[in-house]
Design a protein that fits this description.
Helix 2 packs antiparallel against helix 8. The chain has 686 residues and is an alpha+beta fold. 49% of the residues lie in helices and 21% in strands. The chain is built from 19 helices and 23 strands. The strands form five sheets. Strands 1, 2, 3, 4, 5 and 6 form a six-stranded antiparallel sheet that branches. The termini are far apart.
Length: 686
């Protein structure tokens, strides 16, 4: 074997070395391709499960909208009084809000008493079997029930109903239902924007399609495939033949409010094609890389062997060469044997120096390449400013940041300033001039690009120390921070949009309360007043960018609606920013105390006065509420909402009912609230 190896030329040995190193690379590439195929398989399955859960949540949201409307109508005094004429007018007004649904009222036996869709004077008859089963479930459970789909007698469409039980004297009295066309859920599925080759369907508890996209061989009300019906109760991934006969991979999710099932699937052929496409792409890329690596190895081998072959001297005397050396080396070694001893020492020194030089060159080259890659992918560029010439030398990366081709920046200060956005030129020039004094530059500005877009540039630089009488020089970087600026802008938009939506939601609740509840009821006025308090808190938080609320401003905003004049309220204490977690609870406590003061305490008279003081301890906020100038304070005979709220929100509550007025002291947990969350929500009010 040694003689066979010794017969190999340098080119042959290099090719052998390349082949030995290449084999592990082939194995590694094969492993990577298999891993990519497995990852693609798992990714698609996760995508199916996530899509099914998302659509299930959307179905629950749609059902919850109808359930909420039905529960609100179910509490109507007209329905409880069996005044169906007045209730029908109210139902038709609310029905205009519910979209395409209509409202049905039936007695405990299932006989229809009202149907807003039926023509006037037409006999209503009894509920369908599916609707009656849902109604019976609602009476048994005492909770809203969602029916399976059925053909509506009046509409002729496939519908499902939300059934809310109404009890009178503890017995089933009426069932209020809202009919939902199945077409609503076809539109809901179409809005999900899922891949075109995915199959998405909703199946009711009887195994019928509520909706499915794409339709293909199915329609609403049709019995689903046997495979899906068999696996409907099991969430997760299952495989079975579809109703068209194709083998599908399906993920199930079950909405919480109904006995329905949401399924998202993909044909097994399309599933396999997606994985195959990933594997094919990786295989082509790996094969190309391997081929290029072999060609490169062959080229390097030839470049090394060619000069050795040109200097090789054919000789029959191999000198001191080993039998395993290549023929070229043995021939050359024979001619150099006589001079080898004399030059051994100098050769060793030269070899050591060359090695050190090569290592230094490699290290410098490697460092430069790393810096170049970091600058390219980190979206930053470097510059050096020369104080003598007043010009700057820019790297290729910094020219690209300013929309210039590499090597085209003239280098003068005025040329740079002309590239800055006109609105930012003044402060950019000021910051750069200031940097000549301080030796540090920390600024940012916008740059208009040739395509019309705007790029944000962040500049960081420092002045280099002078060497003797040398000129001033500054070195620095420009960084592309456009993505960070855009992220901040989107976050602000989301915060303002959220604030807007919450205020709209509170307004909707107030509107429903005014329309559906008695307007002259004191409890209704208290309820709307508390809603207003919540809206005020929300506005304060939005103004402070959801960082908290100023305690003094929070107290004034809750007491002001009940005080006849500003001098009736006095506040005293250190400036404190109340954390978001405590703001709502504290605002409701102050609101209830101010409301009680306007009904029974100091704020019932013009001379009355409320003084609020506070201090912050190591783990609690201490507050004191003192009323004066009003009627004598009396302990309430009944524990109301305000008392329950304070008991469940504050700690160490002390209330003194004196002739001079009410004195109330309490604490709010401070560090505990910030670290461990707030106390749970209150139960229903009085």
């Amino acid at each position: 074997m040694q003689r066979s190896y010794g017969a190999l030329s340098i080119k042959g040995r290099l090719l052998l070395l390349a082949g030995i190193l290449f084999l592990p690379c082939v194995g590694l590439i094969a492993y990577v391709i298999v891993s990519m195929a497995q990852s693609a398989d798992a990714s698609i399955r996760r995508g199916l499960s996530y899509a099914a859960q998302t659509i299930s949540g959307a179905v629950d949201a749609e059902l919850r909208r109808y359930v909420t409307l039905a529960e609100v109508l179910g509490k109507s005094p007209d329905l409880g009084a069996d005044d169906l004429k007045e209730f029908e007018a109210e139902a038709r007004r609310v029905g205009a809000v519910s979209g395409e649904g209509w409202i049905i009222v039936s007695d405990a036996s299932g006989r229809l008493l009202l149907n807003t869709l039926a023509p006037a004077g037409k006999p209503l008859g009894a509920r369908t079997p599916e609707g009656l089963r849902s109604q019976q479930r609602a009476f048994v459970s005492g909770q809203p029930s969602i029916s399976d789909i059925f053909t509506g007698p009046n509409s002729g469409e496939w519908v499902a109903t939300v059934d809310v039980p109404v009890f009178k004297d503890g017995k089933p009295f009426r069932c209020l239902s809202i009919a939902m066309p199945a077409a609503n859920y076809t539109r809901l599925l179409a809005q999900q924007q899922l891949p075109a080759d995915w199959l998405v369907g909703i199946m009711d508890g009887q195994g019928r399609y509520v909706s499915r996209i794409p339709k293909n061989a199915t329609s609403t009300g049709q019995i689903a495939s046997a495979g899906w019906r068999a696996t409907a109760r099991a969430e997760g991934i299952a495989e079975f033949p579809s109703i068209e006969g194709d083998r599908v991979i399906n993920a199930n999710a079950r909405p919480q409010l109904s006995d329905w099932t949401v399924g998202v699937g993909i044909k097994q052929g399309a599933f396999a094609q997606a994985i195959s496409s990933t594997v094919q792409t990786a295989t082509v890329a790996a094969t190309t890389i391997c081929a290029l690596a072999l060609l490169l190895a062959a080229g390097i081998g030839r470049s090394i062997a060619r000069p050795l072959e040109s200097i090789a001297v054919k000789s029959t005397n191999p000198g001191e060469a080993a039998p395993s050396d290549p023929p070229e080396v043995r021939a050359l070694n024979a001619r150099l044997a006589a001079a080898e001893k004399a030059q051994a020492e100098s050769a060793a020194i030269l070899q050591e120096n060359f090695g050190m030089l090569a290592k230094a060159r490699d290290d410098a080259s490697r460092t430069a390449e790393q810096l170049k890659l970091a600058a390219k992918y980190g979206r930053l560029g470097t510059f050096i400013w020369d104080g003598q010439s007043g010009t700057s030398h820019w790297s290729d990366e910094i020219e690209e940041l300013y929309g210039l081709k590499p090597g085209t920046f003239p280098g003068t200060y005025d040329d740079w300033l002309a590239l800055v956005h006109p609105e930012d030129q003044a402060h950019a020039d000021r910051d750069n001039q200031q940097a000549l004094i301080t030796g540090q530059l920390d600024s940012e500005w916008r740059v208009p690009l040739p395509d019309g877009s705007i790029r944000w540039i962040e500049a960081r630089a420092r002045m280099l120390p002078r060497e003797g009488d040398g000129d001033l020089r500054m070195i620095g970087v420009n960084i592309d921070v456009t993505a960070a600026k855009e992220a901040d802008r989107k976050r602000e938009l989301l915060v303002h949009e959220l604030a807007h939506r919450v205020k709209n939601s509170l307004a909707v609740v107030q509107s429903l309360a005014h329309q559906l509840l008695p307007r002259h009821d004191a409890k209704v006025r208290d309820f709307t007043s508390r809603l207003h308090a919540l809206a005020t808190v929300h506005s304060s938080l939005a103004e402070n960018d959801w960082q908290g609320a100023d305690l003094s401003a929070l107290i004034e905003s809750q007491v002001a609606p009940f005080a006849g004049a500003p001098e009736q309220l006095a506040v005293s204490g250190p400036t404190i920013l109340v954390p978001v977690e405590l703001t709502t609870q504290l605002a409701l406590v102050i609101h209830e105390m101010a409301c009680n003061a306007s009904k029974y305490g100091a704020l019932t008279t013009p001379s009355g006065r409320v003084e609020v003081t506070w201090s912050l301890g190591p783990d609690a906020l201490h507050m004191r509420w003192q009323e004066s100038g009003g009627p004598p304070a009396k302990e309430p005979p009944v524990l109301g909402f305000g008392s329950r709220l304070m008991t469940r929100t504050v700690r160490h509550l002390q209330r003194t009912f004196a002739e001079s007025g009410l004195t109330c002291q309490f604490e709010l947990p401070w560090l505990e609230t910030r670290h461990n969350g707030v106390v749970g929500p209150l139960s229903e009010a009085n």
